[in-house]
Amino acid sequence: MSEPQLWGAVDDYFTSRLSPDDEALEAALRDSEAAGLPAIAVTAPQGKLLQLLAQIQGARTILEIGTLGGYSTIWLARALPEDGRLVSLEYSAKHAEVAVRNIARAGLDRLVDVRVGPALESLPKLADENPAPFDLVFIDADKVNNPHYVEWALKLTRAGSLIVLDNVVRQGRVADADSTSPDVVGTRAAIELIGQHPRLTGTAVQTVGAKGYDGFALARVL
Ligand code: SAH
Ligand code: DHB
Ligand code: MG
């Protein structure tokens, strides 16, 4: 077995024992694929990690940037109390439409508000509504804008909030200081912002699994 195959087999094993037979999540992936969405959602063990982080955080309000078909949204929204709220920002109307159906089938439509448009346009509109501070922000959209998303997350959170960024390793490309790839440049800028910002303390962890070699950055707002 190649290493990536092995990582996938281990993810399958963990999923079968730790979060098996989840009809709403499996249907969300099936319908996303049927609608032609790219297969780039978090894995099941990663989704469960996001859910556990939201629970540990006692999150009542969550902001997600990058909805796709709502797979990570479902994991996160399930951590919320009855009167909780998750706002998820998605550029593509088609992705959002698939996500809204998947979220409704999971019974979470009362908690989740999917907003269509470029996140850098939706974020100022959201801020104008003076929302209660978000307890957790999950950043998983166009990586080139990662530093802007971290800045917006800072405006929309409180001391003690948690910011999570997906895909910060990208097969190790993050370590290439000479990279001109906009995604790598954006993610490096976000990591450096987390490292230098007086109101943030953070770390990043490398992961392997069914989606290859990648990782998350985690930052706590001070
Ligand atoms: N969080 C999802 C995966 C998101 S994939 C999950 O794990 O299940 C990234 C998503 O970000 C895609 O749906 C893409 O359309 C969206 N996206 C890309 N650029 C964006 C932008 N500028 N604003 C908002 N969403 C964007
Ligand atoms: C891509 C985006 C993601 O958010 C992800 O988790 C994996 C891949 C991508 O654009 O290729
Ligand atoms: Mg991602």
Folded structure, characterized:
This protein has 222 residues and is of the alpha/beta class. The chain has a single domain, classed as Vaccinia Virus protein VP39 (Rossmann fold, 3-Layer(aba) Sandwich). Helices cover 43% and strands 20% of the residues. It contains eight helices and seven strands. It has a seven-stranded mixed sheet, with helices on both faces. 43% of the residues are buried. The mean pLDDT is 98. Bound molecules: S-adenosyl-L-homocysteine (SAH), 3,4-dihydroxybenzoic acid and magnesium ion. 3,4-dihydroxybenzoic acid (DHB) binds at residues 40, 140, 166-167.
Listing every helix as H and every strand as E from the N terminus to the C terminus, the arrangement reads: HHHEHEHEHEHEHEE
Q: Describe the biggest sheet?
A: 7 strands, mixed
* Rg, Å, rounded: 17 Å
Return the structural class.
Answer: alpha/beta
Bin the helical content: 40-55%
Beta-sheet strand percentage? 15-25%
* Number of helical stretches of at least 4 residues: 8
How does the overall form come out from the CA principal axes?
Answer: globular
Number of domains: 1
CATH class: Alpha Beta
Uncertain parts: none
What is bound: which ligands? S-adenosyl-L-homocysteine, 3,4-dihydroxybenzoic acid, magnesium ion
Q: What is the annotated CATH architecture?
A: 3-Layer(aba) Sandwich
CATH superfamily: Vaccinia Virus protein VP39
Number of strands: 7
CATH topology: Rossmann fold
The averaged pLDDT comes out at 98
**Strand order in the sheet with the most strands:** 3-2-1-4-5-7-6
Distance between the termini: 44 Å
